[in-house]
């Protein structure tokens, strides 16, 4: 691998490429990975997937390459193929940082129970705050997928009224506190996710197909 190619990638990625590439194919893999990352950053996911697939052909055991390929396929809506790559990434790396994407693939494949199982594997202490929030959103969406959507929407509305009423009551008696506001924010956030997911899921059954884009905003 040349110093120019190595300089384009983080040091730990360079080491992984060197360790997992087929003989003498390190420079080609590094070049393909750099191209995939550039295309991904530009949201050209088709190009990112092509370059990542080229890298995988010469470094089939690279977790990093499978992660890039899986995420690119996910953004292309190729759920089954993305799931295959991201499950391999998880198996090789041992990480849970892409479990929320894996779970969302299961949701798209109409397997919400598996999505919840994958989300439940994630511990808040082992992932970033952003990944944890995304995991909770996907988990709430998967839960909504398994329930009566109209009932979920109705119950969320009741929950909103109850939470806001509770906060108003606390304010009247000078009982508001940061912990109370924090809990209320979490409850309302989960409720909002359940409501939005149910709304999007139920839309095709109440709106004509040619009006879906307009109805979804």
Please render the helix and strand layout as text:
Layout: H1 3-6, H2 11-20, H3 26-41, H4 45-58, H5 63-75, H6 79-93, H7 99-108, H8 112-120, H9 129-145, H10 149-172, H11 178-206, H12 212-215
Helix pairs in contact: 3-4, 3-5, 4-5, 5-6, 6-7, 7-8, 7-9, 8-9, 9-11, 10-11
Mind explaining what this structure looks like?
The chain is mostly helical. The protein contains 12 helices and no strands. Helix 3 runs parallel beside helix 5, helix 5 runs antiparallel to helix 6 and helix 8 packs antiparallel against helix 9. The longest helix is centred in the C-terminal third of the chain and has 29 residues. The protein is elongated. The N and C termini lie far apart (48 Å). The N terminus and C terminus are likely disordered.
Brief digest:
By secondary structure, the protein is mostly helical.
Features:
217 residues; mainly alpha; 12 helices; 0% strand; elongated; disordered N terminus; disordered C terminus
Mean pLDDT: 85
Broad structural category: mainly alpha
**Alpha-carbon Rg, integer:** 22 Å
Strand tally is 0
């Amino acid at each position: 691998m040349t110093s120019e190619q190595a300089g384009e990638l983080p040091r730990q990625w360079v080491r992984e490429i060197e360790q997992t590439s087929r003989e003498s194919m390190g420079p080609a893999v590094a070049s393909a990975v750099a191209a995939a990352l550039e295309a991904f950053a530009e949201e050209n996911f088709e190009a990112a997937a092509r370059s990542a697939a080229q890298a995988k052909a010469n470094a089939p055991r690279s977790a990093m390459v499978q992660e890039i390929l899986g995420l690119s396929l996910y953004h292309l809506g190729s759920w089954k193929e993305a799931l295959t790559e991201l499950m391999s990434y998880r198996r090789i790396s041992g990480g849970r940082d892409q479990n929320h994407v894996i779970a969302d693939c299961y949701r798209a494949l109409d397997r919400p129970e598996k999505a919840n199982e994958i989300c439940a594997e994630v511990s808040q202490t082992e992932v970033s705050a952003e990944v944890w929030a995304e995991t909770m959103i996907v988990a709430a969406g998967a839960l909504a997928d398994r329930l009566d959507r109209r009932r979920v929407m109705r119950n969320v509305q009741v929950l909103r009224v109850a939470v806001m009423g509770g906060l108003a009551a606390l304010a009247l008696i000078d009982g508001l506190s940061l912990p109370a506001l924090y809990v209320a924010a979490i409850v309302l956030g989960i409720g909002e996710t359940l409501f939005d997911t149910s709304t999007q899921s139920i839309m095709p059954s109440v709106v004509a197909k040619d009006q879906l884009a307009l109805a979804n905003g």
